[in-house]
Description:
Elements: E1 2-11, E2 14-25, E3 30-33, H1 38-41, H2 43-53, E4 62-68, H3 80-90, E5 102-104, E6 107-108, E7 114-115, H4 120-129, E8 134-138, H5 142-146, E9 152-156, H6 159-166, H7 179-185, H8 201-213, E10 217-220, H9 227-232, H10 243-255, E11 271-272, H11 280-284, E12 285-286, E13 291-292, H12 294-297, E14 302-305, H13 313-317, H14 320-325, E15 327-331, E16 336-340, E17 344-349, H15 370-375, H16 380-383, E18 388-391, H17 397-400, H18 409-426, H19 441-447, H20 452-465, H21 470-485, H22 493-500
Parallel strand pairs: 3-4, 5-8, 8-9, 10-17, 10-18, 11-14, 14-17
Antiparallel strand pairs: 1-2, 2-4, 6-7, 12-13, 15-16
Helix pairs in contact: 2-3, 8-18, 8-21, 20-22, 21-22
Amino acid sequence: MLIKAFSCAIYGINAITITIEVNIDIGIQFFMVGLPDSAVKESHQRIESALRCAGHKIPGKKIVINMAPADMRKEGSCFDLPIAVGILAASEQIKVDRVGDYIIIGELSLDGTILPIKGALPVAIEAISKKFKGLILPRVNAREAAIAGNLEVYGVTNIREVIDFFNETSTLERVILDPEKEFYNRLNNYEYDFSDVKGQENIKRALEIAASGGHNVILIGPPGAGKTMLAKRLPTILPPLNLPEALETTKIHSVAGKMGRNTSLITVRPFRSPHHTISDVALVGGGGIPQPGEISLAHNGVLFLDELPEFKRTVLEVLRQPLEDRVVTISRARFTVDYPASFMMVAAMNPCPCGFYNHPQIDCQCNAGIVQKYINRISGPLFDRIDIHVEVIPVPFRDLHDERPREKSEVIRSRVISARKIQEKRFEGAPGIHCNAQISPKMLRKFCVLDDSCHALLKNAMEKLGLSARAYDRIIKVSRSIADLDQAATIRPEHVAEAINYRSLDRDNWGK
């Protein structure tokens, strides 16, 4: 008897429907075709043990299982449950009339327990797009899948529940969630707040400007100055995720297996902080079985690179293309997948190997030229993609002892949201451009017009401070963001003057 069951495979951050055809005929052999990998082939032993524990068995006949499309490689153990259901249906151990109405996915343990999977949300979205009636998957993944919307989602813990469901001897409890309610109930649920930071008002201002324009930032300062503390609080002043952004972010984390148990939706902007020993594949994504890297996990959020010069040169260089294109393309011989990578990069570094160059109280112990050599570990093209350079000075004791209330993140965020609304209106006719940091050189002349006084100020600063040519466009973009925070229609000299202060590493005398 020939039966068709349906499951899904994950490619990139999307799911593709897989048809599992099971045919049972005269004979005693077991065949599995359709480019299954080792994990899929090993399902035979898991299924046999799980069915025995459930009071059923694999029939002693010739069984042929085809996984279509047959030219696409099938990977992972998530096909255990649909293959088991197909075998039971083809051997008439369960009723077959409803098997084709559902996407079925899950890994089986030897006792029949159904284990969690990756990519539940993309699978649910695929089930809706292909007009399946419902989705049967592990219970711990059910809330995540139910967030997709109009789909019957059933979470199961054991294969017995699935068998009884198709035999109509018992029912399964449908998991129903309201996406908007889930989204707004957990919106802005941040652990950190800018009111925790004492002093460092100039750094807070720089991060507010960065958040308002989507600018990349580098913080330079000695150990213990508060660089990491400030960076961790940046997501709390970014505009809240909207529902489409939350769903896209959740898809990426779901495919990577980073969702918590019984979690439905990511509602706060991600903050990823990889260690400096990370490999280029772990950062950008890929591998034998392609997975999203840290830059994709930071999509719609913040990627924090602490101790930037300590990262391997090859690791830092792979950042250049994603910072420009905001997407990562992983190419293999048989397929190509794209992972979104639209993130704000925040980097932190010591100014020199000993960490005390330009320190107000402690002398630097580094020899002549060592500071510049340390800075040169980071390539010019990467610096070219960082708009704001800020020196972080240690907080004096009087500020540490000050108990006066400080501005909360929600107050700063309200100003950032107002600035972003101005930019959204400005770039309505420019697809793919959402904030000032994404402006192209051609658009810069259209949207960031400088008057004569601003031009004179910028020319004077570049000549006297020895600013590099690459600083020119960056200063204008940051000036535009400062003007948006001030609700100003045009860029004024004071906006340009403040932006010039945020180009520390471009000055000719830095590190000399």
